[in-house]
Design brief:
Order of helices and strands: EHEHHEEEH
Largest sheet: 5 strands, antiparallel
Radius of gyration: 16 Å
Oligomer: single chain
Shape: globular
Strand order of the largest sheet: 1-5-4-3-2
Distance between the termini: 18 Å
Number of strands: 5
Helix content: 25-40%
Structural class: alpha+beta
C-alpha cells in the first residue's frame, strides 16, 4: 500500500466533513469469524495487544477489551461512535457472536484517528479517519498503521 502513488487530493475549499478509510485484515493460522474457536479468538486478542503496545508516535494508543470494560470507557466509546455492539441478527445467525464479548476489543491512538477493531466481523478491522478531506493523509496513516501492525505480529 504505497500512499506515494496517490496523486492529488480533495480541494480544501470543498465542504468535506470527514474522511474515513477502513479495511478488513486476517492473520494466517486463525479461523475466520464464523469458524474461529474461543481459544483462537483469545490468542488473536493477545497477539494484537502485544502488537498495539509496540506502536509508536502518532499510532500509539490504548487497547480496550470488551470483557470487563469500565462503564465510563464504554460510554465514551459509544459517544465517539467507535464501539461495536452485540445483537446483530445476521451476525448471530452466522455464529459470529459466539462467546460474546470474550476476545474482542478496540484499539485507538491518542488522536482517535487510527482504530483497530479486534474480532468483530473481521479478525481485524483497521480504520484511519480525520476531519476534512485529506484523503492522502488518511490513506498514509492507514498504510503506516497496517505495516506497523503487520511488522509487530511477525
Amino acid at each position: 500500500m504505497d500512499f506515494n502513488k496517490i496523486n492529488g487530493n480533495i480541494d480544501e475549499d470543498v465542504p468535506v466533513k470527514s474522511t474515513r478509510i477502513r479495511v478488513g485484515r486476517s492473520i494466517a493460522g486463525f479461523g475466520l469469524s464464523p469458524g474461529i474457536t474461543k481459544e483462537q479468538r483469545l490468542e488473536m486478542e493477545g497477539l494484537m495487544k502485544n502488537a498495539f503496545a509496540k506502536l509508536e508516535e502518532d499510532l500509539a494508543g490504548d487497547y480496550y477489551p470488551l470483557t470487563g470494560m469500565d462503564e465510563a470507557v464504554r460510554q465514551q466509546l459509544v459517544d465517539d461512535h467507535f464501539l461495536f455492539v452485540s445483537g446483530d441478527k445476521n451476525l448471530q445467525a452466522a455464529g459470529m457472536e459466539r462467546d460474546w464479548p470474550e476476545g474482542r476489543g478496540i484499539f485507538h491512538n491518542k488522536e482517535k484517528s487510527f482504530l483497530v477493531w479486534v474480532n468483530e466481523e473481521d479478525q481485524l478491522r483497521i480504520i484511519s479517519m480525520q476531519q476534512g478531506g485529506d484523503v492522502k493523509g488518511v490513506f498514509q496513516r492507514l498504510a503506516r498503521g497496517i505495516q506497523a501492525v503487520q511488522d509487530s505480529v511477525k
